[in-house]
Amino acid sequence: MPDSRTLTAVDMLAERHFAATLELSPVQATDLGLALNQDCYDDFSPDGRAEFADLARRTLAEAADLTPQDEVDRVTLTVLNERLGLQLEIHEADADLLSVNGIASDLHSIREVYDLMPQSSDDDWAMIARRLQAVPEAIDGWFSSQQAAIAAGLPPARRQAQLLAKQCRSWAGAGGYFDVLGDAAGARPASLAADLSAGLAAAKGAFLTAADRIAAELAPRASEVDAVGRERYLLASRGFLGTSIDIDQSYAWGLDEVARVQAEMAATARQIVPGGTIRQAQDALDADPAYRLKGTEALRDWMQHRADDAIAGLVAGEHFVIPEPLRRIECRIADTHDGGIYYTPPSEDFTRPGRMWWSVPLGEDEFTTWRELTTVYHEGVPGHHLQHALALASPELNQWRRHGLWVSGHGEGWALYAERLMAELGFLDDPGMQLGLLDSQSLRAARVVIDLGVHCGLPAPESVGGGDWTFDKAWRYFNAHVSMPLANARFEVQRYHGWPGQAPSYRIGEQCWLDLREQVRARRGETFDLAEFHSVALALGTMGLDALRDAVLAAFADA
Questions:
Q1: pLDDT of residue 186
Q2: Spatial separation of the C-alpha atoms in residues 353 and 198, rounded to whole Å
Q3: Are residues 275 and 211 in the same domain?
């Protein structure tokens, strides 16, 4: 736990806001490893969303009367006004009600919370049992919000409703997530075992009922159209970026990025298979035993080994200053099978380590390391793990800035920057691993094109037939530019259709980090120090991209 600076009035307001947020969000408290209302859930109903909006209004009203005492205060007020002001815009547009998609709905939050709850003692499992009993009420609140969204003219997309119903059934079905959770409890005292059994039955029943209700109540009122349109897209995009984009320019840039990366991939492919194509090089790597893993245990061990090596290499190379408690990351195979790879931060005291999770689709048992090494750097070090951990360890940040913020453009942009940085530092010199990095970059550029094209009504490329985007055109475009197992690819393309604005935040955010580094390098000249740039920028914590540019350039203004 860092020694915090003397709190100012601005800090105290931010901390009061954060404390009130945690009272409203037991799920966020779980994310942070806090023992606060851990047998409860957030209120996912319209009334619950209104409570968050009321809190934002009160905080903004107080902030308007405060004067910053220093640069830290100035940044805090900037971020507070931007984030909470946008939260109110989203609420007033009823856009905080709709939560139907296949990756980040409130139903996912209700399920995923158990991944981070302690599971060591009888008391831990008693807490889990009580929270499991609260699942039906939490899901009922979520349904109230979805019905309110439809009444407000914001129906879900039918494709996403069907996908979410399927996921609910898989989590609650035989051998699904809740069965695995129950098995993890092992032998417990009779009364606790009975409570757990009742809680698991309640949760499984609630998710199975949710699947039926989605099919019966939401899907018939859902839209056949995936696109949300420009107005809703821009609002969502600001949430993920903390800046406003020009839709048409960003789309054209995305198309150019895809072409640029494909050209680099072609050149790298010829190093692997002389005179060969990208696909031939990928097939050669897939067939090479040196790049293959068999079984999820081998995958987990390989992830752990590579993550540990990255930490040791970056410390030895003095590219980052990494305090000892931050040098631990735990790699795990998730108990779900949705196809995603994700990171969960450490607890504030670092007793629960940062964790990298791999949700392996059912039936997948072989993995290719050439595709995935760059993902280890993205999720681990110097990606999300270092980003979260350095913010947690920063003594200048109040609790809200340390724990209460996540902006995808900042966080995912940094993680992509981390992938590119590892190549620059020589960690991906092997041509196969370099092709994997470029494949990842092609993925992120293709996301910009598909996401913007689908949701904003832009013309599809001629390579897929031009005209309006369809799911089939998005599927063909994706697979023409990204090498990925079929189940993972399906997950990706469905994700773009159901989570507008999120996917482009990676590449747009990365470009912000790259541009900032070059601006600071230009100011510093020969005295530019990469480790200093990283330390200063990451110590600021998460914020929107506009605020990040201002804060980083202000920090180096005296150069």
A1: 95
A2: 30
A3: no
Cα dihedral sign, 372-376-378-379 = positive
CA-closest candidate to residue 530, choices 376, 439, 448, 417: 417
Interatomic CA distance for residues 83 and 333, integer angstroms: 33
| One domain, residues 261 and 389 | yes
**3-class DSSP state for residue 519?**
helix
Closest Cα to residue 133, out of 63, 217, 197?
Answer: 197
Other C-beta atoms within 10 Å of 332: how many? 14
Tokens in use for 380? 């681990």
Contact between residue 265 and residue 278 where contact means Cβ atoms under 8 Å apart: yes
346-363 pLDDT, tens digit each:
887 888 888 999 888 888
* Domain of 89, in residue numbers: 9-227
Q: Are residues 386 and 487 in the same domain?
A: yes
Name the residue among 338, 110, 128 with its Cα closest to residue 207: 110
Same domain, 265 and 155: no
The region, left, alpha or beta by phi > 0 then psi within -120 to 50, assigned to residue 288 is beta
d(CA 442, CA 527): 34
Q: What distance in Å separates the CA atoms of residue 54 and residue 254, rounded to the nearest whole number?
A: 38
Q: Six-digit token pair at 492? A: 């990706």
As given in the structure block, the two tokens for residue 78 are 């900037």
Considering the domain architecture, whether residues 247 and 209 belong to the same structural domain is answered as no
Q: Are residues 291 and 167 part of one domain?
A: no
Residues 6+ apart with CB under 8 A from 502: 104, 236, 240, 408, 451, 495
**Spatial CA neighbour of 224 closest among 470, 25, 503:** 470
Number of helices (H) and strands (E) in the chain: give both, helices first: 24, 5
Domain count, the chain: 2
pLDDT tens, position by position, 219-235: 999 999 999 999 999 99
Domain match, 219 and 358 both: no
Question: What do you get for the CA distance between the two ends of the chain, in Å?
Answer: 31
